[in-house]
Amino acid sequence: MFGSTVARPKGAGLGTGPFALFHTAWHHRSLIFRLARREIDARYRGSVLGIVWAVLNPILMLAVYTFVFSVVFRARWGTPSGAAGESNTEFALLLFSGLILFNVLGECLNRAPGLLLENISYIKKVVFPLEILPLVSLAVALFNAGIGFLILLVFHLAVAGLPPLTALLLPLVLAPLCLTTLGLSWFFAAAGVFLRDLRQVVGVAVTVLMFLSPIFYPMTAIPERFRAILHLNPMTAILEQSKDLLFWGRIPSPVDWGLATLGAWVVAWLGYLWFMKTRRGFADVV
């Protein structure tokens, strides 16, 4: 049985309907957790500081980005009232929150084109639910984001006190982010099996997307004629809503959030559908 590429794993009959991706995540939840934990352990195994690097890396990048953009380029972030922020620490908080959320998307997309190629044994030798690999990748990215948000909370407490109570609603922003990330990851993971150059293309696209997202600057800094274009970026609404919740105590419009979540769900389902339709050809290519 383990040498067959036709046999289907238990739970493979979950279908490809709009809710199938949720059924897949729930049905294989224990396997996803075990694989994510194994990947996190493997990432830091053998290093002197171990998992401490998961804390040091974001702090170091935060220090570099803050110095470059707030000291060298003298970038400032407008407050809700329109006044310019004067504190580098306030700028660092806003910058760091955006980087944490974007890195969830960026980390998963950078890995997606090579995700199946890194696990060829699962395709050729083992009956395995390949569709959970992007879920495992997302789980690892969310673990890193969780550490980032703990650092952000400590930093916020030190320089600005308690964040507003609306920060507790942050999972609402994470929902469309996770769905969008999953949809794109499923699509690029499947396409990457057939198009080996896709990894380089996606790497460049992720870098471009980062600088076209309101991470290092507010949307008010963008000329009016370009704002509509930047709003096509799915990260724009997510980043803007996260700052409203984390720093300015504003709850996003339920209509805007609902539309964003619905759109993200469609992206996730289409990506999942593409993955499931193309998976039969993976073994023939690898």
Looking at this protein, list some descriptive labels.
0% strand; globular; 286 residues; disordered N terminus; mainly alpha; 12 helices
Give the SSE layout:
Elements: H1 20-27, H2 29-44, H3 53-72, H4 88-115, H5 120-124, H6 133-159, H7 170-194, H8 198-211, H9 224-230, H10 234-246, H11 254-278, H12 282-285
Helix pairs in contact: 2-6, 3-4, 3-6, 4-6, 4-7, 4-8, 4-10, 7-10, 7-11
Q: Could you explain how this protein is built, in words?
A:
The protein is an all-alpha fold. Helices cover 67% and strands 0% of the residues. The chain has helices at 20-27, 29-44, 53-72, 88-115, 120-124, 133-159, 170-194, 198-211, 224-230, 234-246, 254-278, 282-285. Mean pLDDT is 86; it is low at 1-13 and 81-86.
